[in-house]
Fold this sequence. Notes:
Blueprint: E1 7-9, E2 21-27, H1 49-75, H2 86-97, E3 109-113, H3 123-129, H4 136-146, H5 148-153, H6 174-193, E4 202-208, H7 229-241, E5 245-250, H8 257-280, E6 289-296, H9 308-313, E7 317-319, E8 325-330, H10 337-349, H11 351-361, E9 370-376, H12 398-414, E10 419-423, H13 429-444, H14 456-465, H15 482-494, H16 554-563, H17 572-576
Parallel strand pairs: 2-3, 2-4, 4-10, 5-6, 5-9, 6-8, 9-10
Antiparallel strand pairs: 1-3, 7-8
Helix pairs in contact: 1-13, 1-15, 3-7, 6-7, 11-12, 12-13
Amino acid sequence: MATDDVQAQNLTKRPSEISPMTAIYLQDACYKHRYMRTNDHSDIVERPERLRAVKIGLAAAIARLEELSDSTAKLETKEGEDDTGKDLADALEKLDLLQDNAPAATVVNIIKSSASINLLNNEAVKFVHGDIDGDVYLENLINWAKSSTEKVRKGESEIPLNLPQGDLYLCPGSLDAIQGALGTVCEAVDDVLSPSSTKGPISKAFVAVRPPGHHCGEDTPCGFCFVNNVTVASAHANLKHGIRKFVILDIDLHHGNGTQSIAWQINEETYRKTLESEGSGADTSRDLQVYYGSIHDILSFPCEDGKPDLVQAASVSIHGPHGQYIENIHLQPYTSDEDFWSTLYPNAYTKLLTKAQEFVELGQTNPSEVLVFISCGFDACEHEYSSMSRHGRRVPTSFYYRFAKDTVAFAEKYAMGRVISVLEGGYSDRALTSGAMAHLCGLSGLPNVDETWWNVENLSAIEKATKKRRGGKVSLAGAVDKWLDRTVAIFSSIDTPLSPVPSHAKLPPPPSTMMLRERKPPAKGSASGTSTPKNSSRSPQRAKPKASKPAETVDDVLETLERLDLGGAKPESISAVPAMTSQTQDGDKKLPRVILRVKDPALED
């Protein structure tokens, strides 16, 4: 993993107030993963723009936390302190907020990472995604991305046809995004477990990367995911830092079938070694154990079709037998916020942490050997697209604040306060912005956070203030509220302008299985009943570009993709891997022993 180019901004005003600090990790390489099969991106919900929405939410959270921190400091000043010049100071501060080079943060450590992991040369990646017959899946993944240009030029799919076409896509920059995401999550692990003198002490981290990972199993890409970011980070923490027990809390709308499958395999192997060591006396003290707890909608992907193996896996509750520690809780509808907070949250959803407590209390576990991860999806948010969940299995935005706050309290007792939250799903801009804002406030640990900060009125103000203007920049006009000006200034300092990408328009975009199927028959003349993130009355046939636009050739597409490479070097592994086929993905290789192994449902059709 390369970390030499990592840029850290530690701009703390009062280290004593928030120490160790909360940090956010950003990775520009994650913008390179783009859909390029067609000109029509309207149904592509896992898109680079998701990171922009998350950054807006993070900027708003930082602005509000600064305001809260300043208010606390003012209460501590002596009565009768001379306020001469206060008005002038406020005016100068207001002017500074509107400058393009405004500081990125004062209460949260912002780390702009350039870390990257070579898929074929990393122990943690091989531990999770390696194969007994060699790096078959990893080599195939690299070759799929490497050949994507040629495939699209021919009008073919760059993804093998036995994989879900609507949920998975690749382009030449996808490898940089995938390896950059892994590198950034592992960098966060290193910083949390081994404090850096340049970054200061960090105990809580939010890692904003894509593509997500919790649907990807050992060798089964699925649901927008090609590698499992959180389990690779767990393996890295075990191999490099000796962490033995991992608590993974998954709050995405969808069951993390890939993470559960990998956790099951890890626990099964540790359990087998433990049984064998009872007679041989072998040391198993460094073997890792994983608790996986998930809150999800059992009616949504990957369980939407009601396939028994997937529904059963997403409903498992087992704690101890066969060395397994799994808890699955199904989201339920609620009638009001009062109903949610008085009934559902305390009686059902906090069970995720109760079972985690039982897990870490088994044996004589030292808190220094425990690390907590949150697989943080925002797609259960009340502001998510209706097409993601039409069953009322949602949570209020404040859930992301309170769950983070409760997880931090859990970690302070059982894991030395160390929590790493990693972005998973969340697709509408408002769901991502509001969820990220609330979640970072919860991770920060500051008291007296006002949950009205992310109400609809304030979200509308944030969206208006950060709306793209001509030339791609946000408006820097002064706002009525200082926190809103500060939000714009912080966001402007961390935003990465994203240029539009033209695409080959031969193939219509396939429907994503992550979106719910239309249960009723499609209207006469309709090509599909699949709901979309936009107006459902829109015709799905939009692959053709508007007549007013000049026609684009495939070479134009490829030239633009190369121009938008953001200056990243091509991974060495791309040129080093010999050409391979996806034949080994069809089931002719030997698989490791696994119980309740989750497979891609598309492979069974």
